TrEMBL record:
This is 4-hydroxybenzoate polyprenyltransferase. GO terms for cellular component: plasma membrane. It is found in: Cell membrane. InterPro entries: Prenyltransferase_related, UbiA_prenyltransferase, UbiA_sf. The chain crosses the membrane at residues 41-57, 69-90, 111-130, 176-198, 231-249, 256-274, 280-301. One of its GO terms (molecular function) is transferase activity, transferring alkyl or aryl (other than methyl) groups. CDD domains: PT_UbiA_4.
Protein backbone atom coordinates (compact mmCIF):
# COMPACT_ATOMS: atom_id res chain seq x y z
CA UNK A 1 0.00 0.00 0.00
CA UNK A 2 1.38 3.39 -0.94
CA UNK A 3 1.47 6.42 1.34
CA UNK A 4 -1.27 8.05 -0.68
CA UNK A 5 -3.47 4.96 -0.29
CA UNK A 6 -2.98 4.96 3.49
CA UNK A 7 -3.78 8.65 3.66
CA UNK A 8 -6.91 8.03 1.62
CA UNK A 9 -8.00 5.28 4.00
CA UNK A 10 -7.47 7.56 6.99
CA UNK A 11 -9.48 10.31 5.32
CA UNK A 12 -12.25 7.82 4.61
CA UNK A 13 -12.27 6.65 8.23
CA UNK A 14 -12.40 10.25 9.44
CA UNK A 15 -15.30 10.95 7.10
CA UNK A 16 -17.15 7.86 8.34
CA UNK A 17 -16.64 8.89 11.96
CA UNK A 18 -17.80 12.42 11.19
CA UNK A 19 -20.88 11.03 9.45
CA UNK A 20 -21.64 8.74 12.37
CA UNK A 21 -21.20 11.64 14.78
CA UNK A 22 -23.54 13.86 12.78
CA UNK A 23 -26.15 11.10 12.64
CA UNK A 24 -25.84 10.54 16.39
CA UNK A 25 -26.20 14.28 17.04
CA UNK A 26 -29.29 14.45 14.84
CA UNK A 27 -30.84 11.46 16.61
CA UNK A 28 -30.09 13.08 19.96
CA UNK A 29 -31.71 16.34 18.86
CA UNK A 30 -34.79 14.50 17.64
CA UNK A 31 -35.08 12.59 20.91
CA UNK A 32 -34.81 15.87 22.77
CA UNK A 33 -37.57 17.45 20.67
CA UNK A 34 -39.74 14.42 21.32
CA UNK A 35 -39.32 14.78 25.09
CA UNK A 36 -39.75 18.56 24.80
CA UNK A 37 -43.17 18.07 23.19
CA UNK A 38 -44.41 16.06 26.23
CA UNK A 39 -45.72 12.90 24.46
CA UNK A 40 -47.70 12.00 27.58
CA UNK A 41 -49.72 15.16 27.06
CA UNK A 42 -50.17 15.10 23.28
CA UNK A 43 -53.83 14.20 23.63
CA UNK A 44 -54.45 17.22 25.85
CA UNK A 45 -54.61 19.29 22.64
CA UNK A 46 -55.49 16.66 20.03
CA UNK A 47 -58.14 15.03 22.22
CA UNK A 48 -60.36 18.12 22.33
CA UNK A 49 -60.17 18.24 18.53
CA UNK A 50 -61.59 14.72 18.38
CA UNK A 51 -64.33 15.64 20.87
CA UNK A 52 -65.18 18.83 18.99
CA UNK A 53 -65.44 17.02 15.67
CA UNK A 54 -67.50 14.18 17.16
CA UNK A 55 -70.10 16.59 18.54
CA UNK A 56 -70.02 19.02 15.63
CA UNK A 57 -70.62 16.68 12.70
CA UNK A 58 -74.07 15.51 11.65
CA UNK A 59 -72.91 12.34 9.89
CA UNK A 60 -70.00 9.93 9.93
CA UNK A 61 -68.84 11.19 6.54
CA UNK A 62 -67.68 14.39 8.25
CA UNK A 63 -65.41 12.57 10.67
CA UNK A 64 -62.32 12.13 8.51
CA UNK A 65 -61.88 15.01 6.10
CA UNK A 66 -58.73 16.84 5.00
CA UNK A 67 -59.61 19.67 7.38
CA UNK A 68 -60.33 17.54 10.45
CA UNK A 69 -57.21 15.47 9.82
CA UNK A 70 -55.11 18.62 9.40
CA UNK A 71 -56.38 20.02 12.70
CA UNK A 72 -55.85 16.72 14.51
CA UNK A 73 -52.36 16.36 13.04
CA UNK A 74 -51.31 19.87 13.97
CA UNK A 75 -52.61 19.75 17.52
CA UNK A 76 -51.19 16.28 18.10
CA UNK A 77 -47.50 17.21 17.75
CA UNK A 78 -46.56 20.62 16.27
CA UNK A 79 -48.84 22.56 18.62
CA UNK A 80 -47.27 20.78 21.58
CA UNK A 81 -43.79 21.66 20.32
CA UNK A 82 -44.90 25.29 20.13
CA UNK A 83 -46.68 25.36 23.49
CA UNK A 84 -44.05 23.58 25.55
CA UNK A 85 -41.12 24.97 23.57
CA UNK A 86 -42.17 28.55 24.34
CA UNK A 87 -42.73 27.52 27.96
CA UNK A 88 -39.28 25.97 28.26
CA UNK A 89 -37.50 28.90 26.58
CA UNK A 90 -38.78 31.33 29.18
CA UNK A 91 -38.57 28.88 32.09
CA UNK A 92 -34.97 27.81 31.61
CA UNK A 93 -33.78 29.41 34.87
CA UNK A 94 -36.77 28.25 36.88
CA UNK A 95 -36.53 24.68 35.61
CA UNK A 96 -33.05 24.37 37.08
CA UNK A 97 -34.85 23.90 40.42
CA UNK A 98 -37.65 21.70 39.09
CA UNK A 99 -37.27 17.98 39.91
CA UNK A 100 -39.55 17.00 37.00
CA UNK A 101 -37.00 18.34 34.53
CA UNK A 102 -34.31 15.94 33.47
CA UNK A 103 -36.46 13.00 34.57
CA UNK A 104 -39.73 12.82 32.63
CA UNK A 105 -39.46 16.25 31.04
CA UNK A 106 -36.60 17.91 29.19
CA UNK A 107 -34.64 20.96 30.29
CA UNK A 108 -34.29 23.62 27.62
CA UNK A 109 -30.95 23.23 25.85
CA UNK A 110 -31.08 26.46 23.92
CA UNK A 111 -29.79 24.96 20.67
CA UNK A 112 -30.71 26.35 17.27
CA UNK A 113 -32.50 23.23 16.08
CA UNK A 114 -34.89 23.29 19.03
CA UNK A 115 -35.57 27.00 18.56
CA UNK A 116 -36.14 26.44 14.84
CA UNK A 117 -38.60 23.65 15.63
CA UNK A 118 -40.61 26.01 17.85
CA UNK A 119 -40.66 28.67 15.12
CA UNK A 120 -41.72 26.15 12.47
CA UNK A 121 -44.47 24.86 14.77
CA UNK A 122 -45.75 28.41 15.15
CA UNK A 123 -45.64 28.93 11.38
CA UNK A 124 -47.61 25.74 10.82
CA UNK A 125 -50.15 27.07 13.28
CA UNK A 126 -50.76 30.04 11.02
CA UNK A 127 -51.73 27.51 8.37
CA UNK A 128 -54.66 26.32 10.48
CA UNK A 129 -56.40 29.61 9.69
CA UNK A 130 -56.17 28.81 5.99
CA UNK A 131 -58.03 25.51 6.30
CA UNK A 132 -60.78 26.61 8.69
CA UNK A 133 -63.77 28.96 8.31
CA UNK A 134 -63.84 32.40 9.98
CA UNK A 135 -66.14 31.14 12.74
CA UNK A 136 -63.22 29.05 14.04
CA UNK A 137 -60.63 31.83 13.92
CA UNK A 138 -61.35 33.44 17.31
CA UNK A 139 -60.77 30.09 19.00
CA UNK A 140 -57.54 29.48 17.09
CA UNK A 141 -56.33 33.01 17.79
CA UNK A 142 -57.20 32.57 21.45
CA UNK A 143 -55.12 29.42 21.60
CA UNK A 144 -51.99 31.03 20.18
CA UNK A 145 -52.34 34.21 22.23
CA UNK A 146 -52.81 32.31 25.48
CA UNK A 147 -50.14 29.73 24.64
CA UNK A 148 -47.59 32.50 24.20
CA UNK A 149 -48.95 34.79 26.91
CA UNK A 150 -48.77 32.02 29.47
CA UNK A 151 -44.96 32.09 29.39
CA UNK A 152 -43.77 35.18 27.53
CA UNK A 153 -43.05 38.44 29.41
CA UNK A 154 -44.41 40.92 30.17
CA UNK A 155 -47.77 39.14 30.33
CA UNK A 156 -46.54 35.76 31.59
CA UNK A 157 -49.84 34.56 33.04
CA UNK A 158 -48.12 31.66 34.76
CA UNK A 159 -46.59 33.98 37.37
CA UNK A 160 -49.90 35.59 38.38
CA UNK A 161 -52.15 33.65 40.77
CA UNK A 162 -55.50 32.70 39.23
CA UNK A 163 -54.49 34.16 35.85
CA UNK A 164 -52.28 31.08 35.48
CA UNK A 165 -55.30 28.88 36.09
CA UNK A 166 -57.79 30.79 33.94
CA UNK A 167 -55.40 31.11 30.99
CA UNK A 168 -55.17 27.33 30.72
CA UNK A 169 -58.52 27.36 29.03
CA UNK A 170 -56.25 27.40 25.99
CA UNK A 171 -56.40 23.60 26.03
CA UNK A 172 -60.09 23.54 25.10
CA UNK A 173 -59.80 26.05 22.27
CA UNK A 174 -58.56 23.53 19.66
CA UNK A 175 -61.72 21.54 20.35
CA UNK A 176 -63.88 24.64 20.10
CA UNK A 177 -62.21 25.51 16.78
CA UNK A 178 -62.78 21.98 15.48
CA UNK A 179 -66.44 22.06 16.51
CA UNK A 180 -66.93 25.45 14.86
CA UNK A 181 -65.18 24.22 11.71
CA UNK A 182 -67.46 21.25 11.14
CA UNK A 183 -70.69 22.65 12.64
CA UNK A 184 -70.41 26.16 11.24
CA UNK A 185 -71.24 27.69 14.61
CA UNK A 186 -69.66 28.13 18.04
CA UNK A 187 -69.99 25.31 20.57
CA UNK A 188 -72.66 25.50 23.29
CA UNK A 189 -71.80 28.06 25.95
CA UNK A 190 -72.23 25.65 28.86
CA UNK A 191 -69.99 23.08 27.17
CA UNK A 192 -67.28 25.67 26.61
CA UNK A 193 -67.60 26.93 30.18
CA UNK A 194 -67.48 23.41 31.59
CA UNK A 195 -64.42 22.52 29.57
CA UNK A 196 -62.70 25.75 30.61
CA UNK A 197 -63.38 25.07 34.29
CA UNK A 198 -62.05 21.55 33.84
CA UNK A 199 -58.76 22.88 32.46
CA UNK A 200 -58.49 25.34 35.34
CA UNK A 201 -58.66 22.47 37.80
CA UNK A 202 -56.26 20.36 35.76
CA UNK A 203 -53.64 23.07 35.54
CA UNK A 204 -53.81 23.98 39.20
CA UNK A 205 -53.60 20.36 40.29
CA UNK A 206 -50.54 19.87 38.07
CA UNK A 207 -48.89 22.87 39.76
CA UNK A 208 -48.99 21.30 43.23
CA UNK A 209 -45.77 19.27 42.70
CA UNK A 210 -44.08 22.51 41.61
CA UNK A 211 -44.97 24.50 44.73
CA UNK A 212 -41.57 24.27 46.40
CA UNK A 213 -39.46 24.76 43.21
CA UNK A 214 -41.66 27.72 42.26
CA UNK A 215 -41.33 29.27 45.71
CA UNK A 216 -37.55 28.83 45.59
CA UNK A 217 -37.53 30.59 42.23
CA UNK A 218 -39.78 33.37 43.50
CA UNK A 219 -42.66 32.46 41.19
CA UNK A 220 -46.18 33.16 42.40
CA UNK A 221 -48.90 30.80 41.19
CA UNK A 222 -52.35 29.83 42.36
CA UNK A 223 -50.82 26.79 44.05
CA UNK A 224 -48.03 28.70 45.80
CA UNK A 225 -50.55 31.29 47.00
CA UNK A 226 -53.09 28.81 48.32
CA UNK A 227 -50.80 26.07 49.57
CA UNK A 228 -51.40 22.37 49.02
CA UNK A 229 -54.57 21.78 51.04
CA UNK A 230 -56.44 24.84 49.76
CA UNK A 231 -55.29 24.09 46.22
CA UNK A 232 -57.02 20.73 46.50
CA UNK A 233 -60.18 22.60 47.51
CA UNK A 234 -59.79 24.98 44.57
CA UNK A 235 -59.45 22.06 42.13
CA UNK A 236 -62.47 20.40 43.69
CA UNK A 237 -64.53 23.57 43.21
CA UNK A 238 -63.43 23.91 39.57
CA UNK A 239 -64.29 20.31 38.78
CA UNK A 240 -67.64 20.36 40.55
CA UNK A 241 -68.54 23.51 38.60
CA UNK A 242 -67.35 21.84 35.38
CA UNK A 243 -69.57 18.82 36.03
CA UNK A 244 -72.56 21.08 36.70
CA UNK A 245 -71.95 23.04 33.50
CA UNK A 246 -71.73 19.88 31.41
CA UNK A 247 -74.83 18.51 33.11
CA UNK A 248 -76.67 21.55 31.74
CA UNK A 249 -75.75 20.26 28.27
CA UNK A 250 -76.36 16.58 28.99
CA UNK A 251 -76.66 15.00 32.42
CA UNK A 252 -74.59 12.04 31.25
CA UNK A 253 -71.67 14.32 30.47
CA UNK A 254 -71.97 15.89 33.89
CA UNK A 255 -71.89 12.45 35.49
CA UNK A 256 -68.77 11.56 33.52
CA UNK A 257 -67.01 14.72 34.71
CA UNK A 258 -67.93 13.73 38.25
CA UNK A 259 -64.95 11.39 38.31
CA UNK A 260 -62.60 14.36 38.80
CA UNK A 261 -64.04 15.68 42.09
CA UNK A 262 -63.96 12.11 43.38
CA UNK A 263 -60.36 11.68 42.27
CA UNK A 264 -59.01 14.89 43.80
CA UNK A 265 -60.84 14.18 47.05
CA UNK A 266 -59.29 10.73 47.19
CA UNK A 267 -55.80 12.10 46.54
CA UNK A 268 -56.24 14.77 49.22
CA UNK A 269 -57.36 12.38 51.95
CA UNK A 270 -55.49 9.19 51.05
CA UNK A 271 -51.93 10.35 51.51
CA UNK A 272 -50.97 9.45 47.94
CA UNK A 273 -48.01 11.59 46.85
CA UNK A 274 -49.35 14.31 44.58
CA UNK A 275 -46.31 14.16 42.31
CA UNK A 276 -47.18 10.51 41.74
CA UNK A 277 -50.89 11.16 41.19
CA UNK A 278 -49.97 13.89 38.71
CA UNK A 279 -48.63 11.28 36.31
CA UNK A 280 -51.84 9.26 36.44
CA UNK A 281 -53.85 12.04 34.85
CA UNK A 282 -52.87 11.35 31.22
CA UNK A 283 -54.40 7.87 31.55
CA UNK A 284 -57.51 9.17 33.33
CA UNK A 285 -57.99 11.95 30.81
CA UNK A 286 -57.55 9.54 27.91
CA UNK A 287 -60.30 7.28 29.23
CA UNK A 288 -62.67 10.17 29.96
CA UNK A 289 -61.87 11.80 26.63
CA UNK A 290 -62.50 8.55 24.78
CA UNK A 291 -65.89 8.17 26.46
CA UNK A 292 -66.72 11.78 25.64
CA UNK A 293 -65.82 11.18 22.01
CA UNK A 294 -67.76 7.94 21.81
CA UNK A 295 -70.78 9.74 23.24
CA UNK A 296 -70.61 12.21 20.39
CA UNK A 297 -70.24 9.47 17.80
CA UNK A 298 -73.10 7.43 19.25
CA UNK A 299 -75.25 10.53 18.79
CA UNK A 300 -74.99 10.08 15.02
CA UNK A 301 -74.33 6.35 14.92
CA UNK A 302 -76.08 4.69 17.87
CA UNK A 303 -74.21 1.93 19.62
CA UNK A 304 -77.01 -0.57 19.03
CA UNK A 305 -76.60 -0.06 15.29
CA UNK A 306 -72.86 -0.57 15.58
CA UNK A 307 -73.39 -3.77 17.57
CA UNK A 308 -76.28 -4.97 15.45
Amino acid sequence: MTGSDAAGDRDGDDADRAGDGAAADLADHLRYLLVLSRPRFWLYLAGPVAVGVAYGIDGVDGLFTPTTLALAGYFLVPANVFLYGVNDVFDADVDAHNPKKGDREARWRGNRLALLAVVVAAALGVGTFAVTPPVAWPFLAGFFVLAAGYSVPPVRFKTTPFADSVSNGLYVLPGAAAYATVAGTAPPTFALAGAWLWTMGMHTFSAIPDVEPDREAGIRTTATLLGESRTYAYCLACWVAAAVAFAAVDVRLGALLGVYPVFVTWVAVSGVAVDRAYWWFPALNTVVGALFTMGGLWRIYPVWEALG
